[in-house]
Write a structure and sequence with these properties.
Helices cover about 50% and strands about 5% of the residues. By secondary structure, it is mostly helical. It has a three-stranded antiparallel beta sheet, with no helix packed on it. Strands 1-2 form a two-stranded antiparallel sheet. Strands 6-7 form a two-stranded antiparallel sheet. Helix 9 runs antiparallel to helix 11, helix 19 packs parallel to helix 22 and helix 20 crosses helix 21.
Length: about 575
């Protein structure tokens, strides 16, 4: 039997993985090839322990290979391939374990069986597979198999299963949480800028450990110390004359690796200076995402090339050639970011003169450029440095999400925000927008300012230091014991349709003083049943509780007003009456 070529062909042929890699589908032709780990399977194939390849599986595996290649060559990112392969593997194992046929003619039936298996697994008691993941797996396979079987998108395979898409609810964010999130984001941004400034090409080649100054008040210390793989030497307190020969050799060798070098050396020859390069690229990548709002995958795949800057108001429209796309791509940056971007371009040109990527990475021994560039997916090195210095780690996804919501809150324009984030308004609302207590309060205030029957210019001061139209009218639920609103009796104001509270410290002080006055009046009444003064006290207490619980700022107003009243410092509106009653 002639073996087909089952190594997935990458658009960039020079970086194509070889035989035995995850991108090689050959092992799935062998019995038990899907149930074994990749390296074990290919080892057994080489030792002829898995027998002959099964011809009945060829059509399916070749069809999968061709479909994945088509997706890559039509513009999908190479980074999507591991996701496809990781989703296909459990399906093929399901076929293997259940002795299902691998024939292409049975693919649709087998898919529906697997989808039912996912449905059952996600609903078991103590299930490790959640319902959202089960649907995502089935939907991914539905897309691949639907294309292979030429099934129209309108009748997707996944729609014929019992699995359903689950959209997670988006929780509202309070004003205090928003403030903390923004503060953490701004701190991380400032920290990254300091790291980038300290990791120049001269510093990377210079003596180790590398010391980077951090702006005051940002982190627990005033500097970041980067050893680049050479940990701080810890020797016993004995003088050097008493060291063992082995200790002397190790110390001398370590000192030699700490001196400046003219080139980046792999780990086996010297210090891990490539670590410093990777760290800067990762930091620059996060800054770039924050500045442009570009999609993470799109930013990662951005190619190298000369950049053309076109003025666009307070920003630049940047165009550059993308090798993998075979054309120009464009994005917007703030004008102040241009010098940073140009310095970074010079840095990358120095260390990666032949790389097609704008954000390249070294492999973990520093000998060559990484194909997968996993550092721009997991950011382990950068995250470790950030957290070591007492800062919260803000992921790229959270960073972009925070940027979008900040723009939305500042502009109040979903259309403009969606355009700046390179999305439609529907995607913005569905995937990015977080309900914001702060924004909701502002929108409510704007709504009532616009639709309030009393125009702002017609509002007047009331007898309880609030605001009103000067036209008394009772609300429907006014207690019978309370006097009708008449712009003379203060109690009536609290049940007037045209009464408007004032968001100020002075008004809160007036409410506390008024409540104290009514408390005195209630205590002077002989009748033990509820009196009008009791009803007014309860109404005022409700208002005061709202002010106290609505925000930390208003809570401080209430605390201050309570202390004033306890000290006998009453609001001028009520001071003469209270002092008269107390006398």
């Amino acid at each position: 039997m002639t073996m087909p070529e089952l190594l997935i062909e990458y658009p960039d042929g020079e970086r194509q993985p070889g035989y035995g890699s995850r991108s090689d589908l050959t092992r799935y032709l062998y019995s038990a090839g899907a149930t074994l780990r990749s390296n074990v399977a290919y080892s057994k194939i080489a030792n002829e322990e898995l027998g002959e390849p099964l011809s009945s599986r060829i059509d399916l595996i070749v069809a999968i290979k061709e479909e994945l290649e088509t997706r890559l060559h039509s513009g999908q990112s190479i980074s999507s391939l591991p996701h496809y392969l990781a989703t296909l593997l459990p399906f093929l194992r399901f076929l293997e374990d259940g002795n299902y046929s691998f024939a292409l003619a049975n693919l649709e039936t087998n898919y529906l069986e697997y989808a039912e298996y996912l449905f059952a697994q996600s609903r078991k008691k103590g299930a490790t597979l959640n319902r959202r993941s089960a649907y995502t797996k089935a939907a991914t396979l539905s897309s691949i198999f639907g294309s292979i079987l030429e099934i129209p998108e309108t009748v997707r395979l996944v729609n014929r299963t019992r699995l359903r898409s689950i959209r997670g609810s988006i929780k509202a964010v309070s004003g205090s949480v928003e403030k903390q999130n923004l503060e953490a984001t701004f701190k991380q941004g400032s920290f990254l800028v300091d790291i980038v400034e300290g990791l120049s090409k001269e510093a990377v080649h210079g003596p180790l450990p590398l010391k980077i100054k951090i702006r005051e008040g940002l982190t627990q210390g005033s500097e970041v110390l980067l050893h680049a793989g050479l940990q701080k030497l810890e020797w016993n307190s004995a003088p050097k004359s008493e060291w063992t020969p082995n200790e002397k050799v190790l110390y001398r060798f370590a000192m030699q690796r700490r001196v400046a070098v003219s080139d980046i050396l792999p780990r086996k020859y010297g210090a891990r200076r490539w670590y410093l390069v990777n760290l800067r690229v990762q930091a620059e990548f996060l800054i770039f995402v924050a500045q442009t709002g570009m999609n993470l995958t799109q930013a990662k795949e951005l190619g190298r090339g000369a950049m053309k800057y076109k003025p666009l108001g307070d920003s630049w429209l940047v165009r550059c050639y993308k090798n993998r796309r075979g054309g120009e791509v464009s994005f917007q940056i703030y004008k102040s970011y241009k010098p940073f971007l140009e310095r970074y371009r010079a840095f990358v040109n120095h260390f990666f003169p032949d790389s097609p990527y704008f954000f390249p990475q070294f492999v973990t021994n520093g000998g060559e450029e990484s194909v997968t560039r996993g550092g721009l997916t997991y950011f382990r090195m950068l995250k470790e440095v950030v957290e070591e210095h007492g800062l919260s780690w803000i992921t790229p996804r959270e960073l972009r999400n925070t940027r979008v919501n900040w723009l939305l809150r500042r502009s109040g324009d979903p259309g403009l925000t969606a355009e700046m984030a390179q999305h439609t308004k529907e995607v913005l609302r569905e995937k990015y927008e977080r309900p914001s207590q702060q924004r909701a309060m502002a929108e409510v205030a704007q709504f009532w300012n616009k639709h309030d029957p009393i125009l702002q210019k017609d509002l007047k001061a009331s007898v309880i230091a609030s605001r009103c139209s000067g036209k008394p009218e009772s609300v429907a639920d006014k207690p019978e014991a309370i006097v009708e609103p008449n712009c003379v009796n203060p109690s009536g104001c609290l049940w007037c349709k045209h009464h408007r509270d004032v968001d100020s410290e002075d008004y809160v002080w007036s409410l506390l003083s008024f409540r104290y006055l009514k408390t005195i009046e209630a205590s002077m009444t002989i009748n033990r049943n509820e009196t009008p003064s009791d009803i007014v006290v309860n109404r005022l207490s409700e208002k005061i509780l709202w002010f106290e619980g609505s925000s930390s700022k208003r809570s401080s107003w209430v605390t201050e007003a309570k202390e004033r009243v306890e000290e006998g410092d009453y609001h001028p509106n009520w001071a003469p009456i209270i002092e008269f009653l107390e006398q």
